[in-house]
């Protein structure tokens, strides 16, 4: 069926599309609908259903709107990281840290570890995995956990900018743009590397010289026996998957092959692995695709982009700032979904796609609600550590401004 055009819709249906879009993005921005318990995934599904129910999007159009390449890539990476978690890969990293790292080296170690892992796996999942590990290490070393938790959030965001598989918005951009994995990492990895150095410098300046020993009594990490035999297969599969990415195999296909290989097992219960999948995030993506399709059919996206045209978004600095601001208003994934239809019309769409990936990711460090990764860190650390909005902002503002400037300057040079 052909795409529905705004001219084919009645005024009432266009008004309905605007209302559905506004209500959905309000929840995306706030996290919950005021006075109700509707969260982001719930709002995405409700909005998608309403877009179809009021015939702004046809049922067939809703299926076409869903980018299954992105969904498969995200789902497959969740399965791969979930398998690594279940077989004790991250606990093994913790033991290495405790064995070889002194407290004075803990901050750069956390930043490098989270940054590198987030470059190849989904940053949200890395945050979920690393928070309990960092808390346990801080207890063992008898240090205050706040700066190290901030390092988990900020470094995971910064490191994830390096590759298409680093975060959900990069997966979307990789699917929409068709940019090869190697091209993406060649242009974005330098931003991540310098950004991680800046992250360490700012957090060290803000916290480390003023740190005193944490008053809590140091605690030992529970020593579970490490099943080295179980680590062999996942490690080999991950190595093959990453090699496939660099060899030019489509990321979704390579990740799906890796996930399928890990499901062939005699030792790990598949049910436990399925529990590692963030089904809510997948639901959020599916609903968001349909909502944006409805916004396009109703002419809303066209109207929004017309409002932005006087700002000369083709200017890289303006586009960086606009993406960063929009990302902090509605969150980075919805911002990318809104701006994706604008980029192909730019004079240099390749550079614009990279700027969109860079700015939507790095701007997520500005506030707690700037990215899902930040929210995961703050919520997972409770009740042991309370990270307040102002406390996060103290680190988030200088880190965000510095890394955005670095990212914009680099992409302006290498274009």
Would you give an account of this structure?
The chain is mainly α and 415 residues long. The chain has one domain (6-414). The protein contains 20 helices and no strands. Helix 4 (68-86) crosses helix 12 (251-263), helix 8 (146-160) runs antiparallel to helix 10 and helix 9 runs parallel beside helix 17 (332-339). The longest helix has 26 residues, at 181-206. It is globular, with a radius of gyration of 21 Å. The model is unreliable at 214-223 (pLDDT under 50).
Taken as a percent bin, the fraction of beta residues is under 5%
The percent of residues in helical segments reads over 70%
Let me know the number of strands.
0
Order of helix and strand elements from N to C terminus: HHHHHHHHHHHHHHHHHHHH
Overall morphology: globular
Number of helices: 20
User: How can the largest sheet be summarized?
Assistant: none
Structural class: mainly alpha
Low-confidence blocks of residues: 214-223
Q: From the alpha-carbon coordinates, what is the Rg to the nearest angstrom?
A: 21 Å
Q: What is the mean pLDDT?
A: 85
Terminal CA distance:
39 Å
When the domains are counted, the total is: 1
Secondary structure layout:
Elements: H1 11-30, H2 40-53, H3 59-65, H4 68-86, H5 89-100, H6 106-120, H7 123-141, H8 146-160, H9 168-177, H10 181-206, H11 228-247, H12 251-263, H13 270-274, H14 279-297, H15 300-308, H16 316-330, H17 332-339, H18 349-362, H19 372-381, H20 389-414
Concise structural overview:
The chain is an all-alpha fold. It contains 20 helices and no strands.
């Amino acid at each position: 069926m052909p795409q529905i055009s705004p001219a084919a819709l009645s005024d009432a249906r266009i008004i309905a599309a605007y209302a559905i879009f506004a209500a959905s993005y309000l929840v995306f921005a706030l996290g919950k609908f005021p006075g109700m318990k509707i969260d982001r995934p719930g709002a995405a599904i409700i909005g998608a259903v309403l877009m179809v129910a009021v015939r702004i999007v046809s049922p067939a159009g809703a299926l076409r709107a869903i980018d299954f390449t992105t969904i498969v890539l995200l789902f497959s990476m969740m399965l791969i990281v979930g398998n690594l978690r279940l077989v004790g890969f991250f606990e093994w990293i913790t033991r290495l840290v405790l064995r070889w790292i002194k407290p004075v080296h803990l901050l750069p170690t956390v930043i490098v570890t989270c940054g590198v892992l987030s470059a190849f796996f989904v940053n949200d999942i890395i945050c979920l995995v690393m928070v309990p590990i960092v808390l346990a290490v801080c207890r063992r070393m008898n240090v205050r956990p706040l700066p190290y938790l901030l390092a988990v959030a900020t470094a995971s965001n910064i490191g994830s900018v390096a590759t298409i598989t680093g975060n959900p918005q990069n997966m979307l951009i990789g699917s929409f743009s068709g940019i090869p994995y190697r091209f993406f990492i060649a242009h974005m990895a330098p931003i991540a590397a310098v950004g991680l150095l800046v992250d360490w410098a700012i957090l060290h300046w803000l916290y480390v010289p003023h740190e005193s020993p944490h008053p809590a009594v140091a605690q030992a990490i529970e020593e579970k026996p490490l099943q080295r035999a179980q680590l062999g297969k996942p490690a080999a599969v991950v190595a093959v998957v990453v090699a496939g990415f660099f060899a030019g195999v489509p990321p979704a296909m390579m990740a799906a092959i890796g996930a399928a290989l890990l499901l062939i097992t005699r030792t790990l219960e598949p049910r436990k692995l399925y529990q590692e999948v963030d089904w809510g995030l997948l639901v959020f993506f599916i609903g968001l695709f349909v909502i944006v399709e409805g916004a396009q059919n109703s002419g809303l996206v066209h109207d929004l982009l017309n409002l932005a045209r006087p700002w000369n978004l083709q200017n890289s600095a303006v586009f960086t700032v606009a993406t960063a601001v929009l990302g902090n208003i509605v969150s980075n994934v919805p911002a990318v979904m809104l701006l994706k239809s604008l980029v192909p019309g730019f004079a240099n769409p390749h550079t614009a796609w990279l700027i969109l990936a860079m700015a939507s990711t790095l701007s997520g460090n500005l506030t707690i609600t700037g990215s899902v990764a930040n929210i995961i860190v703050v919520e997972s650390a409770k009740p042991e550590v309370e990270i307040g909005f102002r406390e996060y902002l103290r680190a988030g503002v200088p880190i965000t401004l510095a890394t955005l400037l670095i990212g914009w300057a680099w992409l302006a040079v290498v274009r």
